[in-house]
């Protein structure tokens, strides 16, 4: 899986998908994985994108003890496969590796 050098800084809106076709009909993406407390990877239009959520400053996963807790909580809120609507706010200038 490739990570973009400058991931999109986006606001995620969680959508409840009532059927398998709801995600397609509403132009939604799906959660692929959670990177840390403010970063997720989504699948959209056959591509995987790394997304940093706007207005959230969570500790990095390696920042003990809160980084692991923040990552775990985001995994609970946005489990793999969860349908989300993504709205781009701006491109992130923070390089993440």
Automatic annotation (TrEMBL):
What residue stretch is flagged as signal peptide?
Answer: 1-25
The coiled-coil segments of this chain are none
Q: Which Gene3D superfamilies match?
A: 2.40.50.90
> Keyword annotations for this protein?
Signal
InterPro entries found in the cross-reference section: SNase_OB-fold_sf, Thermonucl_AS
In its UniProt entry, what is this protein called?
A: Thermonuclease family protein
Q: Tell me the organism's taxonomic lineage.
A: Bacteria, Bacillati, Cyanobacteriota, Cyanophyceae, Nostocales
């Amino acid at each position: 899986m490739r990570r973009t050098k400058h991931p999109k800084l986006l606001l995620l809106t969680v959508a409840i998908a009532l059927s398998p076709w709801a995600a397609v009909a509403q132009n939604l993406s799906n959660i692929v994985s959670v990177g840390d407390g403010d970063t997720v990877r989504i699948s959209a239009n056959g591509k995987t994108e790394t997304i940093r959520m706007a207005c959230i400053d969570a500790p990095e996963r390696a920042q003990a003890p809160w980084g692991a807790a923040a990552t775990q909580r985001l995994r609970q809120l946005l489990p793999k496969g969860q349908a989300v609507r993504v709205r781009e706010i701006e491109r992130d200038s923070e390089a993440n590796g």
